[in-house]
Amino acid sequence: MKWVAALAVFCCVGGWVVDAAPAPADRIVVGLALDLSGPSGPSGREARGALLLEMARINRRGVAGGRIFLLTLDTKGSPEAAAAAVRSLVRVHKAVAVIGPVEHYAAIAAAKAAQEEKIPLFSLSAPEEILSPPLKWVFSTARPASLPVRLILGHLKSMGIMRAAVLGSSLGYGSEGREQITALAPDFGVSILLNESFRPGEHNFLPFLKRASLRGVGGFVHWARGASRVDLVRARAALDLKIPLYVSHASPGMFGAQKGGKAAEGVVFPASWATAAHLLAESHSAKKELMAFRAEYLKAYKSAPGETAAAAVDALRILAWSARGVGANRERIPAGVEGARYFMGLNGTYGFSKNDHNGLDTDSLVLVRMRKGKWELVKGGR
Fold first, then answer.
1. What is the pTM of this model?
2. What pairing do the DSSP bridges indicate for beta strands 121-123 and 138-140?
3. Which stretches of 170-304 are DSSP H helices?
4. pLDDT in tens, 326-341
């Protein structure tokens, strides 16, 4: 592939992927603190794959008189390793910025380290803790939980569902989703009658659904990553429950015939521009670029890109855009990013400012329903 020539030689030391090549004078080092292994490994590897493709594209034009070089350290989804990776990328490898990690608590630890080391961090997770109030050195191209929560609650309201149950993973992503639903539900007139969590590795969701049914809820919201979403739709089918089911997000093929199958019929979820690109109107301002990105990623990796891949590409594009304006100087980059008041990316249109280091809104999402094994847009709230 064309981008192979742009890569350096890598070696693995203590589980970390470390650059082993000499440093050309025009090399602009961008550090990647990614979860290449551990529970978030699939998302971290997806991000790295997308970033390699984007690096090749950007380097054909160049950035601030140089070329971007990506140097990756594996955080394994660990907060301690994420913080250590940020410090190493600054002190040892002289990176001008860091992209990652994906895991919720690892992102919080990385943000703290970035603040201490005074290096721009583009997080691929969006914990409220690192965004409100905004931290000088920390940005995020991921989607805060409050955005999909608002879409789901708005749909519940439009359907006249005023009593709901919530089930989320005990990990950071699930916990924050549950917190946001609890906090925002009153704004939509929705009462949360049951709010529970489950541990990683849980596969039996029958008890949770039974309790929700006994409480008389009109809708069930599931907030987690991984296979638990498929297990839940199967459990609902096993109980023959007609309770409307909402999941925090989905990826293409997740409810395929060999997985959720017919059990997923009617499941509703928010989807990013990138994952729902094929459903967007031809007139959508980002449709052409989204489809081109999807095709390139499919050709390179034989699978469709997800939201994390899009967030990673957006992070590198925003960084390059900033560097072209203020130079590849880590001290100037934050001010450059804050000047991106209207930046159209793959994950949405970002409106960065001094007071907003994420810049996404609910218009960066579409609401999708499973029908006859395919995705369809939910229009007009129904």
1. 0.89
2. parallel
3. 172-184, 206-215, 228-238, 287-301
4. 999 999 999 999 999 9
